[in-house]
Amino acid sequence: MGSEIMKNIFIAALFAAVISAPVFAGGKMDHSQNYASGAQGSNGVHFFGRLYIGYDQKATGAANSVDSIRDNGGKSRLGLKFKENIGGLTMLGHAEWRFDLADGWATSDSKNCNTDANGSSPCQSIELHIGHLGFMTPIGYLGMGSYETPYKTMGFYDKNMDTAIGMNNHGASSSTDFGQAGTWDSSIMYHGKVGPFHIAYLRGMGENTNNNNISKNDYSFGLRVENLIIANLELGVARTFDKSEGADGEANDKIFASYKVMPNLDVFYTSEDLEITSTGNGFTNGEGDIETFGAHYTMGMHNLQLVYATGDSREVAANEDYRTIGISNTMQLSKSTDITVGYIRKGLQGNGNAIRTYGLGITHSF
Hints:
17 strands; 2 helices; 16-stranded antiparallel beta barrel
């Protein structure tokens, strides 16, 4: 039922935006993703990167805590991008690789890279995060390659993503490629802006199951509206669809909002209706709801993030329901370097084990 309502909202919003295009023909269109920081493209190639290393202590239930020094989420990046004017079009290119400064393997600790057991899926010291080529046209950006999904980039509020204290690792958002960590291979992308409306659509096109992490005709869609009703208010919806699940495929739907209350304080909200098996953060068959409230508060060199989330399983009684709380402080030491300290806890309401993580991380962008 919820998925049908979301589908109708998407169709109506897309239709409204398209028929409004002549009215806003003079409006600016853009193409943006949650990439590592780097110089904004002018003609020529620009190199950029980010180095990250973190210490974390994770405890599950009554078991002894586990200490790690790592970059388990692949936050460290190296990349290049360019743009070139070609007549009335602008060609845009972007390639970005990730790696781990601590253990040398561009993969999470769930894979053992120190044995021969990974021979069928070998570990690599550096691997592609995203890479694509496309054109900025009068109707928006059109491209193909690998991209972060609109489900991830629209309504993205976690400043600790890709670290041990990330929200998606503790149930405060969905996870994996069909959730908040979505990065898809072999896809085509459209992104455009018409007045206050931002629209993005990503569709899987590859049929080679050995090398693609999604299937042909899987899709991700997002619609974001800024400053339409109230200044500094953002509202939006997003969806990912996995055609391989169930008889007719299954979807994850997200509603999101943020509001800048004052120059140094903004609040945010997300509500996720999950059906896809891999994205539910412990829900049986992945089916459940996650509701998240949070705030960012800046005070001098300090940027605080506060998060409270609830998870409600639809398949099993309350023993899979949980609450997550998190707090972190990012201290901006310079324009390029910061240190983050934080704590996040996912506590199950049933008999399961709580997960508690303390983290300290250093980031330098260039």
